[in-house]
Amino acid sequence: MTADTCEEAGSREKATFAFPFLDLSHQFESIQDELESSVLRVLRSQRFILGHEVEAFEAEIAAWNSSRAAIACASGSDAVLLALMALDVAPGDEVITTPFTFVATGTAITRLGATPVFADIEPGAFNLDPTQVESAITRRTRAIIPVHLFGCPADLAPIIAIAEANSIPVIEDAAQAIGAKYRGRQIGTIGQIGCFSFYPTKNLGCAGDGGLVVTNDEQLTERLRILHVHGSRTRYSYDVIGINSRLDALQAAILRVKLPHLDDWTRARRRNADQYSRLFSKYSLDSHVRLPKAPDYAHHVYNQFTIRTSDRDRLRAYLRDSGIPTEIYYPFPLHLEPAFSYLGKKPGDYPEAERAPREVLSLPIYPGLSIEHQMQVVEAIARFYGK
Ligand SMILES: *Cc1c(COP(=O)(O)O)cnc(C)c1O
Fold first, then answer.
1. Furthest-apart CA atoms within the chain: distance in Å
2. Which atom of ligand 1 is nearest to the CA of 199?
3. CATH number at residue 279
4. Ligand 1 test: best mutation among 95, 97, 109, 176, most atoms within 8 Å of CB?
5. Same domain, yes or no: 254 and 268
6. pLDDT digits (tens, 9 = 90+) for 207-258
7. With 90 as the cut, is the pLDDT of residue 156 above it?
8. pLDDT tens-digit series, residues 162-221
9. For residues 245 and 268, what is the distance between their CA atoms, to the nearest angstrom?
10. How far out from the chain centre does Cα 3 lie?
11. Which of 22, 105, 187 maximizes ligand 1 atoms within 8 Å of its Cβ, making it the mutation to test the pocket?
12. Which residues line ligand 1 (CB under 6 A)?
């Protein structure tokens, strides 16, 4: 996971960094024996699709986050797609979501022939602004998808209140936020369906692609179970149009080893976030840099530690020259991406979602990151500002 994050798209020279933006080797080394034996177990069983490993993983993760049912699938992108399919979203329908998210939130809507309807974000945690949602609702609205960006829960209560008043289901895109809590409740289990990703950079990552949908609704459970295996309840009998989106047994076996460690890894991310705050507080940078701050309803799991500054591009170049890796999630809001130009949106339509991509900068935050590296990051930022 280090090689591709070290090379900035479009840059002529490859920068050399003092340490990687994301380093999963620390995590791997701590559970290497268990991982290797579980991969071997699957290999020797010669059962690769669904079966015991996947069922056991689904039961374990449903128990872990207290959801009635967990259905594993091939990716987080498919999780969002399956959630929309389970709700019968179809051509002509509209789905409200944030324009400041990973592209898959939006493309899942488009793939079903439905129209993404964006609502602006709040500038604090970069999440869907509940006050912008109501005016986006029309009689065609079939779902609302808040995204818990960077691991920080969106303000779900007001969003769900608006949704319920209009009988519209809520799908949580929790791909970046596994283990986060909203007012004490596990993220992903609060809306009708929650979507997770096990892409390796997520807080719980497998060794490739993987995803999960969770729900407490019996009918939705039934639909999701069918939809991800070709719409089939019993072999070679197809009740509805489904897709092929299964988690591999190998990935399930790996995730079963990792899941019991997730809480520790989350604690380490939160500790690193606290350490950044303490380190930053030694310099007077408040007028230059805004640190992420979890709203009081949020238990933030810091998939990213994203600061905000009006000098972003110059700061980032300075940090690169100082050997400090950073990333920009995301450089453009979805409504200004070419893929969504067909929606006819213009600059100025969602001001906060347009300002954030110019100002955000994500700093390394992975669980094995050392305090020394965090000090290097903060000292370099302080130096840039002449402190
Ligand atoms: C990663 C991500 C997805 C898609 O997950 P994949 O497993 O990469 O397909 C969807 N939504 C958000 C917000 C994500 O961060």
1. 69
2. 7
3. 3.90.1150.10
4. 176
5. no
6. 999 999 999 999 999 999 999 999 998 888 899 999 999 999 999 999 999 9
7. yes
8. 999 999 999 999 999 999 999 999 999 999 999 999 999 999 999 999 999 999 999 999
9. 32
10. 21
11. 105
12. 75-77, 80, 101-102, 104-105, 147, 173, 175-176, 197, 199, 209, 211
Q: Considering 234, 260, 286, which residue would you say is the last residue of a domain?
A: 260
Contact 367, 26 (CB under 8 A): yes
Q: What is the model's pTM?
A: 0.96
Q: Per residue in 132-155, pLDDT tens?
A: 999 999 999 999 999 999 999 999
Residues 221 and 232 placed together within one structural domain of the fold: yes
d(CA 177, CA 143): 20
- List, in sequence order, every residue forming a beta bridge with 27; answer none if it has no partner: none
The two tokens of residue 53 are 């490993």
Backbone angles phi, psi at 244, to 5 degrees: -100, 105
Do the Cβ atoms of 297 and 182 come closer than 8 Å? yes
The DSSP-derived string for 267-316 is: HHHHHHHHHHHHHHTTS--TTT-B-----TTEE---S-EEEE-TTHHHHH
The confidence score (pLDDT) of residue 13 equals 54
